[in-house]
């Protein structure tokens, strides 16, 4: 009887994990649900969030994360495969040197004003040492925000 109860308990636990998608996360890495993730995707909103928190808001995912969810850039399907998400957090190489360079400084980029379909030309660029710039013409020119 004891073996049967252990087996039954294990079966129930596995069933619960299977149907809930195992929403157990390690301490310090709690998942943000759609209900608790406030979408911030304006220049001012994202710049203020970056300044206050040192990271992008929870509605941003990297290109690799989006691709893992089924995103195909040429299909403009991000809103379908990752509702409420925007692309952000990938390294921006600053090849043209239009943004200020400094030893050890890295730049990252994030889409701004994205709602669905194909990505637009609005981006925010933020550095490892706190600089924040915007571009509305897909990297042709930049304006400092912070």
How would you portray this structure in words?
With 146 residues, the chain is of the alpha+beta class. The chain has a single domain (41-144), classed as Microbial ribonucleases (Nuclear Transport Factor 2, Chain: A). The protein is 27% helix and 17% strand. The protein contains four helices and six strands, in the order H-H-E-H-H-E-E-E-E-E. It has helices at residues 2-20, 43-53, 63-68, 78-81, and strands spanning 60-61, 86-92, 107-111, 123-127, 132-135, 143-144. Strand 5 (132-135) and strand 6 form a beta hairpin. The longest helix has 19 residues, at 2-20. Mean pLDDT is 85; it is low at 12-32.
List the helices and strands and how they pair.
Elements (H helix, E strand, L loop, with lengths): L1 H19 L22 H11 L6 E2 L1 H6 L9 H4 L4 E7 L14 E5 L11 E5 L4 E4 L7 E2 L2
Parallel strand pairs: 1-2
Antiparallel strand pairs: 2-3, 3-4, 4-5, 5-6
Offer a few descriptive terms:
single chain, 146 residues, alpha+beta, Nuclear Transport Factor 2, Chain: A, six-stranded mixed beta sheet
> What is the molecular shape?
globular
Mean pLDDT: 85
- What structural category arises from helix and sheet content? alpha+beta
End-to-end distance = 68 Å
Q: How much is the radius of gyration in Å?
A: 20 Å
In CATH, the topology is named: Nuclear Transport Factor 2, Chain: A
Count every helix, treating DSSP H or I runs of 4 or more residues as helices.
4
Instruction: Give the strand order of the largest sheet, numbering strands 1, 2, ... along the chain.
Output: 1-2-3-4-5-6
- Major beta-sheet overview: 6 strands, mixed
CATH class: Alpha Beta
CATH architecture designation: Roll
Strand residue percentage: 15-25%
> CATH homologous superfamily, by name?
Microbial ribonucleases
Which stretches of 5+ consecutive residues score pLDDT under 50?
A: 12-32
Total strands: the figure is 6
Order of helices and strands: HHEHHEEEEE
Task: Tell me the count of domains.
Answer: 1
**Residue share in helix:** 25-40%
